[in-house]
Design brief:
By secondary structure, the chain is an alpha/beta fold. It has two domains: 135 residues, Nucleotidyltransferase, domain 5; 165 residues, ATPase, nucleotide binding domain (Nucleotidyltransferase, domain 5), CATH 3.30.420.40. The strands form two sheets. The protein has a five-stranded mixed sheet, sandwiched between helices. Strands 8-7-6-9-10 form a five-stranded mixed sheet, with helices on both faces. A hairpin with a 3-residue loop joins strand 2 and strand 3. Helix 6 crosses helix 7 and helix 6 packs parallel to helix 8. It starts with 5 loop residues before the first strand and ends in an 18-residue tail after the last helix. The mean pLDDT is 97. It binds 5'-O-[(R)-(carboxyoxy)(hydroxy)phosphoryl]adenosine and zinc ion.
Length: 337
């Protein structure tokens, strides 16, 4: 019988300080997340300097808690996996420094993980039978991309957004509508009971396949709100939220279906914070089914930032013999694929 592999995952790329222990890549032993959302909400978005300071306060207690909840000592850990990009540089450096210090002090391997690949790998915890090749739709606060996962360690970018990320569009529209940060869940809540066909907010049509552009739909919503305000007309906020959300989802579904047809893949996974959106989950599952494919999405807690996904990604890199040097640096604009 093969020896069990325990990976400690560490994540601090944005406003969540997180640590987790995962056994054999698919069994979650602990998942600790210390969220700073309430702190940043006062400012309408993440303040990088405050995020770094909070990470410094939280990182060691969060790691301690992850180990103790997993009932695993540092000695029993086989490798330390940590996000080294993309993200806010000051925030990334806190988790990275902690991981490097622990790796050095315990003489354990360090594995630098791409945060976006981590989001994709959260799906291995949701579907025990998931195996490459499959398609991934990455929809987070900073990225919107279609990715071919051709093996556990190779990825091919099919296309991405030319301007705003899907999550960024949700956050900006939420802010214009006076809703708190982060805007995605607020728009989703407001959209319940709204009519998604009440208003037409056109999404730019691009000549390149598998690419997205959300700045046009964002401006269309903002212009509509201004016009109605100037005309002193009452706006149905639920209809605006539902119609905006629908426009984003339509664009995501259309390109994903085209990519499924092109690749012939039978599974597509959702990855990144926007994957928490229930309407997106339902509509993408329906659209994928029409072309004979199945949608997989992470459980709610693993849709947004966490360290389980980093440990899971780290496990497959560990198995492939990937090790990072102790002078690994943060790469704020680390690319996908
Ligand atoms: O992956 P994530 O937690 O952080 C990044 O790596 O960016 O994604 C955060 C983004 C935010 O833009 C947030 O508004 C969006 O994900 N988001 C949602 C929902 N939950 C989070 N967007 C739409 N619907 C949701 N339910
Ligand atoms: Zn993320």
């Amino acid at each position: 019988m093969e020896k069990d592999i325990y990976i400690l995952g560490i994540e601090s790329s944005c406003d969540e300080t997180a640590a987790a222990v995962v056994k054999n890549g698919r069994e979650v032993l602990s998942n600790i997340i210390s969220s700073q959302i309430v702190i940043h909400r006062k400012f309408g978005g993440v303040v990088p300097e405050i995020a770094s300071r909070k990470h410094i306060e939280n990182i060691m207690p969060v790691i301690d808690e992850a180990l103790s909840e997993a009932k695993v000592t540092l000695d029993q850990i086989d490798a330390i996996a940590v996000t080294y990009g993309p993200g806010l540089v000051g925030a990334l450096l806190v988790g990275l420094s902690a991981a490097k210090s622990l790796a050095w002090a315990t003489d354990k391997p360090l594995i630098g993980v791409n945060h976006l690949e981590g989001h994709v790998f959260a799906n291995f915890l949701a579907d025990a039978e998931l195996e490459p090749p499959f398609l991934a739709l990455v929809v987070s606060g900073g990225h919107t991309a279609l990715l071919k996962v051709t093996s556990y360690n190779s990825f091919e970018l099919m296309g991405q957004t030319r301007d705003d990320a899907a999550g960024e569009a949700f956050d900006k529209i939420a802010r214009v509508m006076g809703l708190p940060y982060p805007g995605g869940p607020e728009i989703e809540r407001l959209a319940i009971g709204g009519n998604p066909n009440a208003l037409v907010f056109p999404v730019a049509k691009l000549d390149a396949p598998y690419e997205f552009s959300f700045s046009g739909v964002k401006s269309a919503v903002i212009n509509y709100l201004h016009k109605e305000e100037q005309g002193k007309r009452e706006v149905n906020r639920s209809d605006v939220a539902a119609s905006f959300q629908q426009a984003i989802i339509n664009a995501l579904c259309k390109e994903t279906v085209a990519a499924l047809k092109e690749t012939g893949y039978k599974k597509v996974v959702l990855a990144g914070g926007v994957s928490a959106n229930k309407t997106l989950q339902t509509e993408l599952a329906k659209a994928a089914k029409k072309v004979g494919a199945e949608l997989v999405h992470p459980t709610a807690i693993l849709c947004t930032d966490n360290a389980v996904m980093i440990a899971c990604r780290g496990y497959f890199m560990y198995k492939a013999g990937v090790r990072s040097p102790l002078d690994l640096n943060a790469v704020p604009s680390l690319k996908l694929g």
